[in-house]
Design goal:
5-stranded mixed sheet; 231 residues; Nucleotidyltransferase, domain 5; alpha/beta
Amino acid sequence: MRDTPAALSVPETRNQVWSMDFMHDALGDGRSFRLFNVLDDFNREALAIEADLSLPSARVIRALDQVIEWRGKPRVIRCDNGREYVSGTLLQWAAQHQIRIEHIQPGKPQQNAYVERFNRTVRYDWLAQHIFESITQVQDAATRWRIGSWHPWLHDRSRMSREAHVRFWEGAGLQCPALLNYLHAYESVSAARYGIARYMQFFNTRRPHSALDRRTPDDVYFGSLPLAVAA
């Protein structure tokens, strides 16, 4: 029997608890695709976004390994009971890395609320607004979202109409971020994935989070360090 997960709380430092989750949608031709998202619960930092038609356990492990290579490993990873997360392959990998996989209770997504909120942000801001014809377009949209949709000047964008967004950006001599999704297509999947990495950089360093008192994940992390380290 799996232990009941501890009550959701804010970790005291980075790499204490990560959370991961899948999102699902469909391309214009009806093919299903998935997004795999990984978040650090401490400062809500987006650590990975993988997009593809299929994301089996091996891809999940590869994505986690890539994050660990530059970030270090977490003590705990919180997730639901999807088949990729309960597979022997993932559990063996976690045991080898001395990482505890903490499964939430079935039917209680609120026990993984931090990544669930991130998923809603992704879906509200761009995923549900377009019909995508390819995985490359999905990944490109994530990049265009990074470029402008969460610019600090638009932190209260819920009160702005689409026309107000356009007027604001045109007044600054720029194109409205909502229109940028249609202006570029990558030549390769690797280029699109690079774009997602750039989006995550924006999400973590420039996008203000209401749950973090309008601070970015980096603001929270560096604000928690001793001054000598943060300097």
